Structures are given as C-alpha cells and as structure tokens.
Amino acid sequence: MTRAGRSHAERDTTARPGLLLAAVCLGGMMVGLDGTAITIAAPWIARSTDASLADLTLIANVYLVTLAVCILPAGRLADRVGRRATFVVGALGFGACSLGISLSAGVGELVAFRAGQGLFAALLQPTALALLSTAFPRERLGMVLGVWGAVNALAIGLGPVFAGFVVQGFGWPAVFLVNVPVAVLAVALVRVAVGESRARPSPRPLRTLLGQRATRVGAVLVAMSSFAVFGLLFLLTLYLQNVHGLTPSAAGAWLLAPTMAVVIGALVGGLLTERIGPRWPVVIGMVAVAIGLVGLAQVSVGSGYWGVASPAMLLGLGTGAWVIAATSTIVDDNAADLAGTASAVQQAASQIGGVLGVAVIGVVVSVRVGDVLGARLREAGVSRPVAAAVARAHDLVAEGRAPLPRGSSEQLGEAIRTASHLAFTTGMQTAFLLSAALIALAAPLGLLLRAGAPERIQP
Fold first, then answer.
1. If you average pLDDT over every residue of the chain, what do you get?
2. Which tens digit of pLDDT belongs to each residue from 393-443?
3. What single DSSP character describes residue 406?
4. Is the model more confident about 15 or about 111?
5. Do 159 and 37 contact (CB within 8 A), yes or no?
6. Which stretches within 255-405 are classed as H helix?
7. Rounded Cα–Cα distance for residues 327 and 293 (Å)
8. Which residues sit opposite 2 in a β-bridge?
9. Helix axes 279-296, 256-276, angle to 10 degrees
C-alpha cells in the first residue's frame, strides 16, 4: 500500500498517543544512555574484572555487531507477531541484561550480557518507530518524530556527564542498574497506551520497501547524517581528550551545547516536516551541516570552547532537522503493514552510516597524519633519528596522542607533543573539509523528497 492509500482505519484509534510517546522515548533514552555509559565505565570495569584493552573492545563491539545483525529481522518479526509485544520483550530483555551486567564479575559474563543487550535493542528500536507511525495520524507524525529524535539526542549527549557522575558516586554497576526501573516503567506505559497491532501478510517486505524511491533516498540520507555525526563525535572526542587533555565527563560537557542544538533542530525539523514536507528541512539541514563542518575545519590545537562549540552547534541544528525529515520519508511514506520493517530500515541505515563514518574518517586522518607528521617534527626541531621513531608510531598520533620515546627530556617531549598535536589537527581539518564537500554535493538528493504538508485524513 502506498502512502497515498493509507487509510485512517490502519491507525490504532484506541491508542493514548501521549503515553505511547513517553514509553517510546523512555526506551530510546535507556538505549542511548547505555551506549555512552560503557565508554565512561570502561576504566572501572577493567580494574574490577582485570579486563584487557582487547577485552574492553570486545565488550563494546559485541553489542554493535549483534544489533546490526538482528535489526532487520527484528523489524519483520514485529510486523508479524505484534509491535507492542515485541517492544515489551525488547524493553524487559534489555533491562534484564542490564541487571546481569551490573552483577557480572568477569569478562565472559559481560560479553554475553552485552550481546543480549544488542539483541533486545534490535527488538526495541525499530518497534518504537513502528508503534508511533501506526498510532499517530501522519499530519502529526513529523513533530512526534522530532520529539523522539530530540530525546534520543539528549540521552546520548548527557550520557557521558550522567555516567561520570554515577560511576564516581556509586560505582560502575549502578550505571547499568538504572536501566531496570526505566524498562519496567516503559513496559507499563506501553501496555496502557496502545493495543496490539500486526501486519497483514506481505511477501518480500524488504524488497517492496526498497522498490520505493522515497524509502531508498530516505535511507541514504539517514545513513549520511549518521556518517557525519559519528565521524564528528569520533574526532572531537579524540581532540578534546587527547589534545586538550579533558576527562571524558569534561569532554561530554563541552559537547552539551551542540547536543542541545541537535535537540532544537529535531523539534524544528519535525514541525517543518509537518508544515512543508521533508524536502526543504533536509536540504537546508544538509547545507547547515556542510557550513558547520567547514567551520570545524578551522579548529586548531589552541582553539577555545566557542571555537569548537559555535560551528558544532550549527552542525547540530542542521543534523536534527535533516535526520528527522529523512526518517519521516521512510516510516511515514509506507503502509502501516510495513511499519516495523520500514523502521528497521531506518535504524539499519543509521547504524551503517555510523560505522562507515568512523571508519572512513579514521582512514582519512591516519593518511593525512602520515603525510605531514615528518614535516611537523622537523619544524619542531626534533632530530632525524627521533623523528623516524615517532613516525613509526603515527597510528598513535592519528588518535591525538604523542608517542614519547623512553627517557625523553622535557624539552624533547614538548616538541614531540606540539608536532603530534599539529599533525592530528591537520588530519582532522582535512577530514572535516572532505565531509563538508561530500554532504554539499549530496544535498540535492533532498530535492527528490516530497514537498508540501501531508494530506489530512478524516475519520
């Protein structure tokens, strides 16, 4: 069924939309906070479980891999067996695995429960969007998606600050224990808020979705937004912690203003999508992101707070509007029978874009650092033998760190740090400029999307 053919009867008219939105936002907030909590809690986990760096990497990545593998099948499962039931299982399972993590004493247990979190998050995330798209009329869905996106962005942005406070005050298990009551509350709200909804049988639902231009373009745009955001966060986190020497919590505090800009952008983007359709919020948002990235390409070793925050806030405003409008083309331009699968496509596109963003941006920075590090070391007065030793460790420099040879004098150490940080910021600037060019070139894709407000449907 096409968007134009979606009928009023396909909505759950018995739903309590406000309570449903609260339940869905609680589920998203739980997953968002948990994603950043593991990063902040990692040093404490390592000390209490004797986990190595490789163990910590496994604990973090097993969640992402499981989520990526399961998210499309989970969307189809929700359509077949029921969206509310799938949401309930996802929320309770995520909460139970969080409890398991808080009680874990070894690496094996942590890996197993993190994989469980990935599985249940895959059930939870696409089902949340599917419930919203079937409970709200499409003329209101833009703003609803804006609120959902704003809450998710706020959870991710506040995650480092919240996790740092909880870990330092109550220990790392408490970060995960918080998820248990949140999961129970989300389940209670969703059971009161909405009845069960299932899809009519539909052969090859994924092929049906991807056969529609709006879905394909929306998925590409969602992936590109995640490419930009995850690449940005990856580089800025390295810059703030390794070049500026900030703690994870302090680095998170630096990023609060850009996060709030994403929140505002998502709300405005949702409202504009309701009023004028997704085309212009996407195009204008992408242009704003490109300009913000050009601004971030001017950041240097000694840049202060506003030198980083100002362009990042512009980027945040653009991202919020862009991703919500693009998401609406996927979940709103498809029949209610495909709501779960459509939501899974949106989530999968976001995950793929984020992975590619970190990978591609990392390669660009590494290559550029390798190109300029030797010259920066010579400019700093580092001797050829020492410079050669530092250049062999250019992978550390690509993380914003300074590989100091054993026994280095204070003067030599300062010279190597200066050269290393200059090389890293040069790589970061190049990555931001290339990302800006890519997004500016892709902005005309937004012109393929619908213009104009959705038709109002009379009961």
1. 85
2. 888 888 888 888 887 888 998 999 999 999 999 999 999 999 999 999 999
3. T
4. 111
5. yes
6. 256-276, 279-296, 305-331, 339-379, 384-391, 394-397
7. 22
8. 334
9. 160
The closest of 141, 154, 441 to 289, measured between CA atoms, is 441
CA pair distance 425, 372, nearest whole angstrom? 11
For residue 129, what is the DSSP state?
Answer: H
Whether 71 and 344 have beta carbons less than 8 Å apart is answered as yes
Mean pLDDT value across residues 77-82: 86
Nearest Cα residue to 39 out of 164, 178, 181, 166: 164
Q: Count H helices, E strands: the chain?
A: 17, 0
pLDDT in tens, 345-391: 888 888 888 878 878 888 899 899 999 999 999 999 988 888 898 88
What are the structural domains of the chain?
A: 16-198 (1.20.1250.20), 206-451 (1.20.1250.20)
What residues form DSSP beta bridges with 334?
A: 2
Distance CA 458, CA 41 (A): 51
Q: Which residues face 255 on adjacent strands?
A: none
Secondary structure (3-state) at 300? coil
Per the CB < 8 A criterion, the answer to whether 203 and 326 are in contact is no
First-to-last alpha carbon distance for the chain, in angstroms, is: 19
Distance CA 83, CA 194 (A): 10
Listed range (205-209, 284-288, 311-315) with the worst mean pLDDT: 205-209
C-beta neighbour count of 453 within 10 angstroms: 15
Q: What is the pTM of this model?
A: 0.80
Which of 228, 249, 244 is CA-nearest to residue 292? Answer: 228
Residue 294 and residue 437: Cα distance in Å, rounded? Answer: 9
Burial of 361 (0-12, 13-18, 19+ CB in 10 A): buried
Count the helix, strand and coil residues of the chain and give each as a percent rounded to the nearest 5.
Answer: 80, 0, 20
Residue 252 and residue 229: Cα distance in Å, rounded?
Answer: 15
CB of 371 closer than 8 Å to CB of 364 = no
* Crossing angle for the helix pair 17-49 and 83-102, to the nearest 10 degrees: 30
* Residue 400 CA from chain centroid, whole number: 22
Confidence category of residue 110, pLDDT binned at 50, 70, 90: very high
43-74 confidence digits (pLDDT tens): 788 888 888 767 877 887 788 788 888 888 88
**SS3 category, 451:** coil
